[in-house]
Amino acid sequence: MNKFIEGLNEAQRAPVLQKDGAMIVIAGAGSGKTRVLTFRIAHLMQQGVDPFNILALTFTNKAAREMKARIAKIVGASEAKNLWMGTFHSIFARLLRIEADKLGYPSNFTIYDSEDSQRLIRTIIKEKNLDKDIYKYKQVFSRISSFKNSLITVKAYYANPDLQEADAMAKRPRLGEIYDEYVKRCFKAGAMDFDDLLLKTNELLTRFPRVLAKYQDRFRYILVDEYQDTNHSQYLIVRALSDKFQNICVVGDDAQSIYAFRGANINNILNFQKDYEDVKTYRLEQNYRSTKNIVNAANSVIDKNKVKLEKVVWTDNDDGPKIQVNRLLNDGEEGRFVASSIFENRMNNHLSNGDFAVLYRTNAQSRAIEDALRKRDIPYRIYGGTSFYQRKEIKDVLAYLRVIVNPNDEEALKRIINYPARGIGATTLDRLILAANSYDKSIFQIIEHLHELNTGINSRTRGKLTQFATMIKSFQVTAKNSDAFVLTEMVAKKTGLVQELKKDGTPEGVARIENVEELLNGLKDFVEEQKELADATGNISEFLEDVALATDLDNATDDENKVALMTIHLAKGLEFPYVYIVGLEEDLFPSGMSMNTRSELEEERRLFYVALTRAEQKAYLTYTLSRYRWGKLIDAEPSRFIEEIDEQYKEYLMPPDELRGNSFVNPDLFGEVDKSKLRQNKPTPGVPPPAHKPSEEQLRKLRKIRPQNSQSTAKIDKEVLQLEVGAAVEHLRFGRGKVVGLEGVGQDKKAEINFENGGLKKLLLRFAKLKIL
Ligand code: ATP
Ligand code: MG
């Protein structure tokens, strides 16, 4: 037997060693499902299966990269490169490029991101003179998206009176018309939106049996991670492709199905047995990720769900510390608690920033955490916020590139036709769109034939438009002869984009130029990387595809040693030694919008299960007594999920006094809230009142934390605050260093220190715990 197989327990080995047939692995969090997929692929390859014949679908591109790297270690990098491995969207975008012409699309089709789609829908609503308060573009977009994910085409929509009636009831009787126009406009622009990547793949596989047969033969072995979160459209693709050989292995956990709101269908996992002829079902029970306390706590919560497959999850790992529940006054205090706890843990347990994650229900919660981490000089990275590629200046450059690749791309064209300003105003653009609609051409095609058409655009403006088209065409020539980096550099300079940014001398303006430089750096890397790959050319369309499909999780370089901040949805599949789950309050988590039905509430509970099971060693839960929601300070109540954790696996702790004090909140902010109540423990059924009755152990812990704090403050007063430039110091983690600069006074005094191990760091002396040498 191969050596690497020894890295699997017996239950895990079985699905790895079963070479052929349909199989499903259903197992709880951290039990090695992803590991089984990885090893299974390596094992298939060792048995002589050609990597070109293996298709592996993962939840993020990052997961795919990690899996590939793992497999490369076992079977060698050159072979691993040939695997078809990635997210549904990236894999099928690749396939569609090859087959695009069959569907009437150019192979260089653009991928519209959701912002592009929403803009286009907004345009259509406006063109049709519909009331934008009733036809809200975001709602219309999500309705269209759900149609596409259920394979309901425009035709199918019009054939279905129920759907039309539902829209009429929602006062949007003309939704079908918008859908129709949206689809037509995307097609004319040579663009597919995210949902099209799946919808069109389905169309391709259904309408062209030969194409289906070709890919069935190609993908003899199919593997799917996180199968519980596949939607109908994804399900059909997998089913069609695996139909011939039926060598399909899916892994998942019904308890971690958290994307129902985006169309994920838990029945895909529940019905798998019925879909294939001879299905083997495997179960894994041993969790390798987390401590006993974490595993048991998570089990005790998910037990409250009624709809679930019965599963056993246990672990041989240590008991570990209990789940620590912390009650804070408000989000400011919550942020400070998290920052200070990370700081302490990092020091005391020799951890690095990358060992910590802060998870929240909604993106908006990150702000308070960020503020606190920044104040403590703790490096962090936010995932899922505004990603690099979503920044305006980056989108502008990318829009040029998109138009160069596909001049019919309407959304990209509208973005740059008059940016930087070249005298092509809104009226001209309106006239162009009008002409494009009436001649059934793209805007760019209209510009190319301006002199032959009656557009009502005057000759001066026509000159400018022609100039614009000439510029784009000259870039197209460059694109043919040079790589993506050279082209982008030329675009940045020749369009006047960089000069435009330079005009704005503010720090934000400078940051924007730096971002464009960063984009160029990224392109340089991309070009280098692509040169190593056999079937890639380093040209701009491949880069644009990567960008369009990059989730924010994918943009992080893996060696980044920063605290990770993200929503729980994004954290699926990941693991961190220390995890903070913040904002555990009723109406926030569970979300106020998801408490109307049992099934919604159960999905929130699964989300909490996902959050808790990310932790390897210790989990912290925090809730606050009051929180700003929709601009109002409201009384918050602890989440029911805290209560649902079995008593024996959790403990309640108050934050050390140091975090309180007068700095944490402006008393005026409290308004009508009864301030006396805030410091008291609000009785909540089932939640023991820690402030009144701390256990002996809690007291012991509290006592331990307090002297530590006062100790560090005392030390600061005497020595550290007198530090001078040139002084030699020692830091627990960064080692020895020399003070090279000082700023601020008193409590805010900071030192810039050049450490032998850690490089240049700026530390707040109050917290830095430095030894003066
Ligand atoms: P999730 O449900 O969160 O996606 P999972 O079931 O996919 O979890 P993995 O991520 O594959 O679980 O495994 C969890 C952790 O346990 C990983 O760090 C993995 O390397 C480790 N692990 C799994 N099986 C074993 C094993 N047999 N021996 C040692 N470590 C293991
Ligand atoms: Mg996994």
From TrEMBL:
GO terms for molecular function: helicase activity; hydrolase activity. It comes from Mesonia sediminis. Residues 6-291 form the UvrD-like helicase ATP-binding domain. Its EC number is 5.6.2.4. Gene3D superfamilies: 1.10.10.160, P-loop containing nucleotide triphosphate hydrolases, PCRA, domain 4. Keywords: ATP-binding, DNA-binding, Helicase, Hydrolase, Isomerase, Nucleotide-binding. InterPro entries: DExx_box_DNA_helicase_dom_sf, DNA_helicase_UvrD-like_C, DNA_helicase_UvrD/REP, P-loop_NTPase, UvrD-like_ATP-bd. Signal peptide: none annotated. Pfam families: PcrA_UvrD_tudor, UvrD-helicase, UvrD_C. It catalyses: Couples ATP hydrolysis with the unwinding of duplex DNA by translocating in the 3'-5' direction; ATP + H2O = ADP + phosphate + H(+). ATP binds at A27, G28, A29, G30, S31, G32, K33, T34. Residues 675-696 are annotated as: Disordered. PROSITE patterns: UVRD_HELICASE_ATP_BIND, UVRD_HELICASE_CTER. Belongs to the helicase family. UvrD subfamily. Residues 292-573 form the UvrD-like helicase C-terminal domain. The keyword Metal-binding does not apply. CDD domains: DEXQc_UvrD, SF1_C_UvrD. This is DNA 3'-5' helicase. The keyword Isomerase applies. It is an enzyme of class 5 (isomerase). PANTHER family: ATP-DEPENDENT DNA HELICASE SRS2, UVRD / RECB / PCRA DNA HELICASE FAMILY MEMBER. SUPFAM superfamilies: P-loop containing nucleoside triphosphate hydrolases.
